[in-house]
Design the sequence.
């Protein structure tokens, strides 16, 4: 006995079969148990499908709950943008521009902030020869992997924006320099006296010693670097100990535990990030100096400005320009001479020898260890700080409502959020610095640090929103979310300003906020399947 | 909202009344989002698509024929939008009907199919649906979520009317496979009368 095929049975059940054919099927099915069974099974399958597809298993996103208000004047947007613009202007004129000017005086002049950030591209010189094919392939693979991951989980506009920004950033970077000589992975490197390298020299070694001449830039990633010869370009050094005793026609940029310039002539500028920095009395710097150091002893001559963020500064030498220092302690000795203005902001009163030659009296500002609860200025600052955090939260709620909601929801998972937060807070900068230490990872390292700073600041916004939700409940809509954010941030600011426990509150907020952000990002990049894996065929 | 109130709201919305439009939006935003969620690959896509569909609906409200059910028109616009979205994403590799026509007409083992239906939950069906090719997924969503007729499905998927049944049956087969019952769809093919 032949049977009706599945297609015909389905069309019959769906009411799509012509009447004569349908009657034929009905007549056949009356006497055929197997076709009746098939019809029954298909009908049950249809019901299962309809039930599965119609069942409401997900909440509707908050941004879809309110109808669009495109025909009304978007006052919220206008106010937000106005506040944001005012904030950006204040930030630019109050922080970025003065810094840019200082950096420009210190030899980091540039037209764009990106150029500035990447130190006018000096770090990028020699990449052409540094990055061999394997390194390039590794970078490209990572890039494609990242794009692949992000493409599926990010909104297309976000992806597009990130891609365009990256392209713009890459275009803004200076072009690569010509070929360089590379000494890589050697225990010890030495350029003997009398020998000359007629190109840039890049050294990666345990110890490096330059007694000869480098006719170009010297870039070193060595535990210990000693330059006794001469370098016609810049010296860029990462290492535990950086000693420069010879002459440098360009700039010195040093990142090390100990950076020492002894009997050195640097024609341009010096920048150092170090635990201990020393400029001995025989050293000359033709430009300015910018120092970030735990301790600095400055006995030599600096022709232009000195800008320093230094724990303890001892100044006995000559400074031809202005001096601007910030730190814990300052001591100006009797041989010191400052031709320009001098200012100091710190925790302790500076010691200034009466015989020191200062063109104008030292401007001193002693910072208080504790906030001064009695001054209106303190409350004004707190209000400004609240306003800035609120504007950031407003922008996030309006631009990325889904993601913002995800982060706030992640905040409810205190345990994992705290764990992730602690990890992100401490591990990220360490990893970023490690990445910076390898030339391939420099861009990745700097990028990671920038993202970390943004995450650090925005942590309070997410915790504020979570606090608001905990206190006021979670009614839907952007307006309610903004209200909760305002209240939550206010509570957080008040708690953070309390004596003794305020610091702990702030730390806990950073842990929780960064952790929630990390959790939300993880969940976005690793979407959970809606189904137990057992249901998917192996 | 009663049928009369709905008709009234539609009429006012067509006249440019923002409050009436708001009422319609609140009534249908959730169903349209759920439809998009079933049809599109991710929640974010569904969110974006819902917003875009309502922008389109507002623009096209003048074209709505009050003689037809409003929800049918709504789903038609949504289906077209989602299908265009998938085409732009180039996930409609199976658009051509060639393979559809080669589908073997077979007779599955009813007992295996019954067992599959009994064992699988709605949640599992939804997850399996998410793994299907775009056209199969879309066809099932249009038929069993939006309750569209074969004519409407043919129109939305741009396939010829006689092939809608084939598309649906093939989609069911793919769903069964995804549900881990390749054997159930292992067809005990027998002749046709």
Sequence:
């Amino acid at each position: 006995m032949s049977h009706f095929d599945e297609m015909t049975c389905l069309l019959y059940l769906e009411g799509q079969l012509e009447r004569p054919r349908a009657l034929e099927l009905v007549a056949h099915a009356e006497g055929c148990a197997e076709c009746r069974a098939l019809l029954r099974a298909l009908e049950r399958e249809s019901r299962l499908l309809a039930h599965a597809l119609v069942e409401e298993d997900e909440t509707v996103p908050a941004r879809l709950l309110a109808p669009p208000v495109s025909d009304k004047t978007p006052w919220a947007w206008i106010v937000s943008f106005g506040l944001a613009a005012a904030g950006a202007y204040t930030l630019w004129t109050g922080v970025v521009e003065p810094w840019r000017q200082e950096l420009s005086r210190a030899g980091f002049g540039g037209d764009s902030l990106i150029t500035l950030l990447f130190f006018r591209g000096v770090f990028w010189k020699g990449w052409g020869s540094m990055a061999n094919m394997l390194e390039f392939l590794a970078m490209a693979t990572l890039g494609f992997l990242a794009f692949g991951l992000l493409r599926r989980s990010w909104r297309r506009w976000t992806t597009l924006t990130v891609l365009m920004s990256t392209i713009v950033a890459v275009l803004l970077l200076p072009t690569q320099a010509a070929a360089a000589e590379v000494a890589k992975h050697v225990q010890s490197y030495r350029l003997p006296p009398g020998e000359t390298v007629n190109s840039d020299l890049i050294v990666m070694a345990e110890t490096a010693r330059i007694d000869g001449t480098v006719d170009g830039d010297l870039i070193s990633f060595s535990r210990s670097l000693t330059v006794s010869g001469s370098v016609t370009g810049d010296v860029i050094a990462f290492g535990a100990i950086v000693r420069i005793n010879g002459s440098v026609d360009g700039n010195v940029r040093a990142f090390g535990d100990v950076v020492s310039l002894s009997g050195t002539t640097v024609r341009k500028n010096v920048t150092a990030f170090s635990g201990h920095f020393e400029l001995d009395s025989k050293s000359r710097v033709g430009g300015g100096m910018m120092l970030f150091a735990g301790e600095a002893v400055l006995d030599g001559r600096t022709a232009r400005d000195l800008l320093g963020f230094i724990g303890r500064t001892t100044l006995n030498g000559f400074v031809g320009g202005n001096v601007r220092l910030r730190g814990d302690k300052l001591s100006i000795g009797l041989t010191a001479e400052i031709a320009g203005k001098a200012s100091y902001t710190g925790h302790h009163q500076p010691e200034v020898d009466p015989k020191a030659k200062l063109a104008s009296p030292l401007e001193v500002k002693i910072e208080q260890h504790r906030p001064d609860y009695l001054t209106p200025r303190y409350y004004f600052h707190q209000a400004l700080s609240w306003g800035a955090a609120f504007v950031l939260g407003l922008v996030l709620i309006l631009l990325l409502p889904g993601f913002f909601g995800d982060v706030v929801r992640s905040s409810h998972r205190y345990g994992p959020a705290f764990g992730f937060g602690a990890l992100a807070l401490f591990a990220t900068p360490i990893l970023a610095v490690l990445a910076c230490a390898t030339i391939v990872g420099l861009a990745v390292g700097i990028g990671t640090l920038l993202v970390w700073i943004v995450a650090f600041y925005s942590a309070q916004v997410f915790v504020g929103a979570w606090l608001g939700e905990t206190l006021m409940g979670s009614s839907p809509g952007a307006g309610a979310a903004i209200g909760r954010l305002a209240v939550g941030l206010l509570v957080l600011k008040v708690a953070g300003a309390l004596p003794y426990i305020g610091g702990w509150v702030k730390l806990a907020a950073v842990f929780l906020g960064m952790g929630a952000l990390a959790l939300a990002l993880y969940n976005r990049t690793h979407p959970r399947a809606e189904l137990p894996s057992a249901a998917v065929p192996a | 909202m009663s049928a009369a109130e709905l008709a009234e709201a539609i009429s006012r919305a067509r006249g440019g009344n923002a409050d009436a439009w708001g009422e319609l939006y609140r009534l249908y935003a959730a169903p349209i989002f759920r439809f998009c969620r079933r049809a599109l690959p991710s929640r974010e896509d569904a969110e974006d698509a819902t917003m875009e569909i309502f922008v389109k609906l507002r623009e096209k409200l003048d074209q709505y024929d009050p003689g037809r059910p409003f929800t049918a028109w709504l789903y038609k616009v949504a289906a077209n939008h989602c299908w265009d979205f998938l085409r732009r994403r180039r996930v409609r590799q199976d658009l051509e009907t060639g393979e559809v026509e080669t589908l073997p007409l077979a007779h599955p083992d009813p007992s295996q199919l019954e067992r599959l239906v009994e064992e699988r939950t709605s949640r599992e069906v939804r997850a399996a649906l998410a793994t299907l090719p775009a056209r199969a997924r879309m066809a099932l969503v249009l038929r069993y979520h939006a309750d569209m007729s074969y004519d409407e499905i043919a129109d939305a998927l741009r396939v010829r009317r006689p092939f809608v049944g084939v598309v649906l049956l093939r989609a069911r087969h793919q769903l069964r496979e995804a549900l881990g019952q390749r054997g159930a769809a292992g067809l005990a093919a027998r002749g046709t009368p």
